[in-house]
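To: structure subgroup
Subject: Chain for Friday's discussion

All,

I'm putting the inputs and outputs inline so they're searchable in the archive.
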Amino acid sequence: MPLKQRRAFAGLAVTAALVALPNLLYHNTGWVQFGYRFSNDFIVFLLSMLAVGRRPLKTTFVVLAAWSIFVNAFGALSFQRPGWEKYYRYDVRPNVYFEPD
């Protein structure tokens, strides 16, 4: 990898880590959401690292990327929507948990 690409890659890696660190340390119950929405803050830098690295994407990566799109699309379409209750467990009552304001 040329020096210019290495610097860009390193800069993106540091930026991704600095943005991800507060998100990974943030505590949130998240019980009324599907997926880890805070990853949207740093995924752009990780995908940019893939682009700067210019390595060919193997079949495993493509399959896992397609699977992640499928899982998140399923969650976006079905989570807390009428008719999809059989895929989720709704017997937990929110007033059982203590969540201070």
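Points worth raising on Friday:
The CA atoms of residues 4 and 34 lie 39 Å apart.
The chain is about 55% helix and 0% strand.

D.
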